Amino acid sequence: MITRYTSPKAPEPAPERWSNCIVSDGIAYFSGLTSRNADGVTIDGADEYEQTKIIFEKHKALIEAAGGKMADFTKLTIFVTRIQNNKQVWKARAEFFEGDFPACSLVEVSKLAGPDIYVEIEGIAHIGKGAR
């Protein structure tokens, strides 16, 4: 059985396009999330640190809606457009994870969903039995 989870803190597009979080057999899959708000606007002037914090707040709201916690994340894939600013991403990540960090990939891409978006993060978490 697949269950879709949402949160007011993580607005998503029309459900026929994709879901921000689905859980199947205790495994939560998170679509790539950005720092855009419900109106599709990114905070003006937000850098990689601020955008990463906003994205992890969305992940936190979604995983809690699904009955999990941030420590349940087992894999993150982080896409950035300016890899030279990766320390800002790691700084924000450290505010949401402690101890054993999830497995993680950092990938530089030429563009994301808009010129004002520098970070996009997708993830996988194991909720409930078998959670780390």
List the helices and strands and how they pair.
Elements: E1 2-5, E2 21-24, E3 27-33, H1 48-65, E4 73-80, H2 86-94, E5 103-108, E6 119-126
Parallel strand pairs: 4-5
Antiparallel strand pairs: 1-2, 2-3, 3-6, 4-6
Descriptive overview:
The protein has 132 residues and is α+β, with helices and mostly antiparallel strands. The protein has a single domain, classed as 60s Ribosomal Protein L30, Chain: A (2-Layer Sandwich), CATH 3.30.1330.40. Helices cover 20% and strands 28% of the residues. The protein is built from 2 helices and 6 strands; from the N terminus they run βββαβαββ. The chain has helices at residues 48-65, 86-94, and strands spanning 2-5, 21-24, 27-33, 73-80, 103-108, 119-126. The chain has a 6-stranded mixed β-sheet with strand order 1-2-3-6-4-5, with helices on one face. A hairpin with a 2-residue loop joins strand 2 and strand 3 (27-33). The chain is globular, with a radius of gyration of 14 Å. It starts with a strand and ends in a 6-residue tail after the last strand. The model has no long low-confidence stretch (mean pLDDT 89).
Name of the CATH first level: Alpha Beta
Instruction: Give the low-confidence spans.
Output: none
- From the helix content, strand content and strand pairing, which structural class follows? alpha+beta
Strand count, sense and barrel status of the largest sheet are:
6 strands, mixed
Q: Identify the strand order in the major beta sheet.
A: 1-2-3-6-4-5
Q: How many extended strands?
A: 6
In the CATH classification, which architecture applies?
Answer: 2-Layer Sandwich
Kindly state the mean pLDDT as a whole number? 89
- The arrangement of helices and strands along the chain is EEEHEHEE
How many domains would you count in the coordinates?
1
**Distance N to C terminus:** 22 Å
- Give the helix tally: 2
Helical fraction: 10-25%
3D shape: globular
Give the CATH topology.
Answer: 60s Ribosomal Protein L30, Chain: A
Question: What share of residues are in beta strands?
Answer: 25-35%
State Rg.
14 Å
CATH superfamily: RutC-like
